[in-house]
Amino acid sequence: MTAFKTLGQFIIERQKDFPYAKGELSRLLRDIGIAAKIVNREINKAGLVDILGDAGSSNIQGESQKKLDIYANEQFIAALRSGGECCIVVSEENDEYLVIDSDISNEANYVVALDPLDGSSNIDVNVGVGTIFSIYRRKSDTGKHSTNEDVLQLGTEQVAAGYVIYGSSTMLVYTTGKGVNGFTLDPSIGEFCLSHPNMTVPAAGTIYSINEGNYIHFPDGVKKYIKYCQVEDPDTNRPYTSRYTGSMVADIHRTLIKGGIFIYPPTTGAKKGKLRLIYECNPMAYIIEQAGGKASDGYKRIMEIEVRELHQRSSIFIGSMDMVLKAEEFMSSFSPKLFVKSFEGEVKIQ
Ligand SMILES: O=P(O)(O)OC[C@H]1O[C@](O)(COP(=O)(O)O)[C@@H](O)[C@@H]1O
Ligand SMILES: [Mg+2]
Ligand SMILES: [Mg+2]
User: Fold this and answer.
1) Which of 137-151, 167-181, 237-251, 253-267 comes out lowest in average pLDDT?
2) Where does the UniProt entry say this protein principally localizes (predicted)?
C-alpha cells in the first residue's frame, strides 16, 4: 500500500507550529476542507444538475451571481457555522460581514474572509475555478459582537490563508506562516492527501499573465513592462510566454508551480484595480510570500496596504521575486497616470 498523509493527519502533526496551539485553527482548516469537498462534488456534476448559469441576482459589486457562487458561499458559511471556531465571515457574496451569533461562536476566536468561488465566469465552460480563504484572529474580546477592528486587519495579521482549485484535479493549498503545502483530493478515498510539500515559487519565471485585451487602459509602466516581456533577449529567456485563464486561482496556482508573474493593474475603468484586497489579494500574497515570491500593488507590499472597506479593491503584481521586482521598476519609472489613446491618436488623461 502506498503511504500517504491526509490533510487531517498533516494538520494535527503541524498543530504545534500554530501561534495559539489549542486545536481551534486546526478544526477551522478541517471545516474548510469539508466544505471544499462538498463544493467540489457539485462542480463535478455541473451540467448534469441545474447548477450552471446565472442566479438572477448580483452582489454588492454589481457582478451577476452564478448559482454556484451562491451554493459555494452557503456551503462554506454552513461549515464554519457548525464548526464553532469562526466568529465572523467576510464574503464576496455578502454586502456586510456576517456575525456567527451562536453561543459557541461568541467564544470563537477566528475571522474568515472568503471568495467562495473565484473565476465564476469560467464555470459554464469547464475552465478551472477556485475558492480563496484568509484567516485572522479576532481582536475584540470574545463574548462580544465583532467589530470593524476584526474585519479590517492588515494582511500581515493573517494567521492562515489558502485556496482550493477545482481543476483537472482538485487541490487545497495553504499556509499558516511556515511554508506552503498542497494536497490533492483523492476521489477514491474522498481525502485531500499531501502531494506538494514545501512549495516554492521559482525566483525567475518566464510566464506573464495579464488580461492584455485591456492594454489601452493600462498605466504606462504596465504597457512598457508588457513590451519588455515580449522583447527577444536569450540571456533573460525573453520573449516570455503569455498565459491568462480569467480565474485568479488557476493563474496563481500555475505561477506558484512554474513561476511567472500575475498582474491585475489599475485600468481607466477600475482605477484601484479589480481584485478585492481582503479575500483575493491578501491571502494570495501571504501564500506567494511564504513560497519565496513577492506580492505588490506595483509600488507597495500588498499585505501592508491599509484596509478601510470590506470590499476594497487593489491592483496586484504577484509571483516570482525577480519578475515582480522588474515590474515594480517599470511602475516607478513611468507615469502612474492612465491614458486612453484613441485610434486617431488623440490622447486623453483619465
Ligand atoms: O475578466 P477579467 O477582467 O480579466 O478578470 C478576471 C479576474 O476576475 C476574477 O474572475 C474575479 O473573481 P470572481 O469570479 O471571484 O469575481 C478573477 O478570478 C480573475 O483573475
Ligand atoms: Mg475572485
Ligand atoms: Mg468569487
Assistant:
1) 137-151
2) cytoplasm
C-alpha dihedral (169, 35, 132, 319), degrees to nearest 10: -40
19 vs 109: CA distance, rounded Å = 13
Q: Classify residue 149 by burial, with Cβ atoms within 10 Å: 0-12, 13-18, 19+.
A: exposed
Closest residue by CA, ligand 1 atom 11? 119
Cβ–ligand 1 distance for 120 under 6 Å, the answer yes
For residue 248 and ligand 1, the question of a CB distance below 6 A is answered with yes
What residues make up the domain containing 170? 7-196
Give per-residue pLDDT as tens, 299-329: 999 999 999 999 999 999 999 999 999 999 9
136 touches 20 (CB < 8 A): no
Give the separation between CA 322 and CA 272, rounded to whole angstroms. 24
Answer yes or no: is 201 within a domain: no
Cβ neighbour number for residue 255 with a 10 Å cutoff: 27
Q: Are residues 164 and 270 in the same domain?
A: no
Tell how far CA 12 is from the center of its chain: 24
Sign of CA dihedral 291, 160, 127, 277: negative
Among 16-20, 73-77, 92-96, 158-162, the least confident range: 16-20
Q: How far is the CA of 64 from the centre of ligand 3 (A)?
A: 10
Q: Give me the number of domains the chain comprises.
A: 2
Same domain, 189 and 236: no
Start-to-end CA distance of the chain, whole Å, equals 63
User: Helices (H), strands (E): how many in the chain?
Assistant: 8, 19
Q: Whose CA is nearest to atom 7 of ligand 1?
A: 246
Note whether 140 and 37 are same-domain residues.
yes
Indicate which CATH number applies to the domain containing 264.
3.40.190.80
If phi over 0 gives left and psi between -120 and 50 gives alpha, with beta otherwise, what is residue 167? beta
Q: Which ligand places an atom closest to the C-alpha of 61?
A: 1
- Decide: 118 in ligand 1 pocket, CB within 6 A: yes
**Do 111 and 216 share a domain, yes or no?**
no
